[in-house]
């Protein structure tokens, strides 16, 4: 379904609620298209003046829908197009006189014949737009009962649409959700809530719940009550309003391991409810998958939690071992190992609290920046600052990124003070930004800058920590990282700057 960009915003001749109602119609009119076996097009005056003046009035297509119950007859996307000359007179007549207008292409050969109906959309006595229905006129044949019922339901809805009574813009749906379509199953209820017609798919859906007998002539509310008694479930006091067709709402029935979602649409004529439509959809498989996903999510969270606990145990053992070491070099090596283990543990702790396709990592990286600096240097003061925002990142990117930040910051702190014992403070800034190339692919750019002594003048060989960084950046992040001198306020070389650039890829790319 093609929709409009929205020329209705702040339209001077639309009253409160008019634009919302037109939007609600377009959001829900696929059902109408399916029931009427017709393409739908919504026409609106091309200019503001055309809304009130017939002089040189033209119309523009604001929205379009194609039926899923038959072949389309409007093959081209017409949204945004001016109305054709052959359609304009009937649309103009429907707009001006507020009457339904029909035309047909009787001169065309049978396969190409098309009939068009223009229906004015009237709300508060004013025409808001015109909707045209386009359907094929095929060779003479006897329509099925299902087709006749569908067309009858469409005709009833079209009367309500023309009067601005459907769709209802302030309908409160139940929390069950679900969006059944015409093809999923349709019930037509009489004014007493008895089933007057049930489509084959509706019969199949309810049979999954254990409703084996013929549906027609039975009370849908009675069927619902029987299912509630058989399952012993919690009684929903609002459900009878749906099952009798008295209120537009949604709900879900569950029984015998099956689930069917329902949606009711009351039908009104002259202000009196005379029937109702109930769409139904078998969502048993969807609910089973939902339960499986919930179970898997809980399992994965528990795994992350246990991995975090195990890593914290490893870190504690490393800390105990470092205290027993006589060699300062050995203690330093164990502290570095402990720092890396705690970094991974912190990431698993964050993942154990929520499983999303993307993780908001700003707070995690802020803690990681501070922790890395504190563990690398506890005797002298180190200030850390995070500028910018990481935003949402794929979970597969978080662990290697956290390790890279830990190693780079620790390296900056360990070497930034230099040999001068009188230097008591160091500042480390982490500046993060996101950008996109011409194709819309996002990249993460990260700078870690310190105001320390800077890189040595001669060639230097990176230690184990920076070798780990390069391996992670290339292998896990598919990025690059470089080091150079930082710049002071006047452009003079100050400290060290590490620049990381990496693409932001979804989980499927890792």
Task: Please tell me about this protein's structure.
This protein has four domains: 18-162, Beta-Lactamase (2-Layer Sandwich); 182-282, PAS domain (Beta-Lactamase); 285-355; 358-510, Heat Shock Protein 90 (2-Layer Sandwich), CATH 3.30.565. 37% of the residues lie in helices and 25% in strands. The chain has 510 residues and is an alpha+beta fold. Mean pLDDT is 84; it is low at 106-111 and 173-177. The strands form four sheets. A five-stranded antiparallel sheet has the order 2-1-5-4-3, with helices on both faces. Strands 7-6-10-9-8 form a five-stranded antiparallel sheet, with helices on both faces.
What order do the strands of the largest sheet run in, or round the barrel if closed? 2-1-5-4-3
| Average pLDDT metric | 84
Unreliable sequence segments:
106-111, 173-177
What characterizes the major β-sheet? 5 strands, antiparallel
Short descriptors:
25% strand; Beta-Lactamase; 510 residues; alpha+beta; five-stranded antiparallel beta sheet; 4 domains
What's the arrangement of secondary structure elements?
Layout (H helix, E strand, L loop, with lengths): L17 H11 L1 H7 L2 E7 L13 E7 L22 H10 L3 E4 L9 E10 L2 E11 L8 H18 L23 E5 L4 E4 L1 H9 L11 H12 L7 H5 L5 E7 L2 E12 L2 E11 L1 H41 L3 H25 L6 E2 L1 H15 L4 E7 L4 E2 L1 H22 L8 E12 L5 E9 L13 H12 L4 E8 L5 E11 L7
Parallel strand pairs: 12-14
Antiparallel strand pairs: 1-2, 1-5, 3-4, 4-5, 6-7, 6-10, 8-9, 9-10, 11-13, 14-15, 15-17, 16-17
């Amino acid at each position: 379904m093609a929709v409009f960009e929205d020329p209705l915003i702040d339209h001077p001749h639309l009253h409160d609620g008019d634009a919302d109602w037109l939007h609600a119609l377009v959001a829900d009119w696929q059902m109408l298209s399916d029931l009427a076996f017709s393409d739908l097009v919504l026409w609106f005056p091309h200019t503001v003046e055309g809304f009130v003046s017939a002089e040189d009035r033209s119309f523009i297509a604001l929205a379009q829908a194609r039926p899923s119950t038959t072949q389309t007859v409007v093959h081209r996307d017409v949204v945004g197009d001016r109305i054709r000359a052959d359609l304009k007179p009937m649309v103009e007549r429907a707009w001006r006189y507020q009457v339904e207008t029909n035309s047909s292409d009787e001169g065309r050969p049978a396969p190409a014949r098309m009939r068009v109906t223009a229906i004015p959309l009237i709300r508060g006595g004013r025409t808001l737009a015109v909707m045209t229905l386009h359907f094929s006129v095929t060779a003479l044949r006897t329509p099925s009962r299902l087709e006749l019922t569908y067309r009858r339901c469409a005709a009833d809805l079209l009367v309500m649409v023309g009067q601005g009574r459907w769709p209802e813009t302030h309908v409160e749906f139940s929390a069950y959700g679900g969006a059944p379509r015409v093809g999923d199953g349709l019930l037509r209820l009489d004014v007493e809530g008895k089933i007057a017609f049930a489509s084959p798919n509706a019969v199949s859906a309810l049979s999954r719940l254990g409703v084996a007998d013929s549906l027609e002539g039975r009370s849908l509310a009675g069927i619902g009550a029987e299912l509630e008694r058989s399952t012993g479930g919690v009684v929903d006091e609002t459900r009878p309003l749906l099952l009798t067709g008295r209120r537009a709402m949604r709900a879900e029935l569950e029984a015998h391991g099956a689930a069917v979602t329902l949606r009711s649409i009351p039908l009104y004529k002259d202000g009196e409810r005379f029937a109702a439509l109930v769409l139904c959809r078998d969502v048993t498989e969807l609910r089973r998958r939902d339960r499986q996903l919930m179970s898997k999510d809980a399992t994965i969270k528990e795994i992350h939690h246990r991995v975090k606990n195990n890593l914290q145990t490893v870190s504690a053992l490393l800390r105990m071992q470092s205290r027993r070491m006589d060699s300062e070099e050995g203690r330093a090596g164990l502290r570095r190992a402990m720092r890396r283990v705690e970094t991974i543990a912190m990431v698993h702790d964050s993942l154990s609290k929520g499983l999303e396709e993307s993780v908001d990592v700003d707070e995690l990286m802020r803690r990681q920046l501070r922790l890395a600096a504190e563990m690398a240097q506890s005797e002298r003061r180190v200030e850390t600052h995070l500028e910018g925002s990481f935003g949402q990142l794929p979970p597969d990117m978080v662990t290697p990124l956290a390790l890279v930040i830990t190693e780079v910051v620790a390296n900056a702190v360990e070497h930034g003070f230099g040999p001068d014992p009188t230097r008591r403070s160091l500042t480390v800034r982490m500046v993060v930004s996101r950008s996109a190339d011409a194709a819309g692919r996002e990249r993460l750019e990260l700078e870690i800058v310190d105001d320390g002594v800077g890189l040595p003048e001669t060639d230097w060989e990176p230690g184990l920590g920076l070798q780990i960084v390069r391996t992670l950046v290339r292998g896990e992040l598919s990025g690059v990282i470089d080091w150079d001198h930082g710049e002071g306020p006047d452009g003079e070389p100050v400290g060290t700057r590490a620049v990381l650039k990496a693409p932001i890829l979804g989980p499927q790319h890792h």
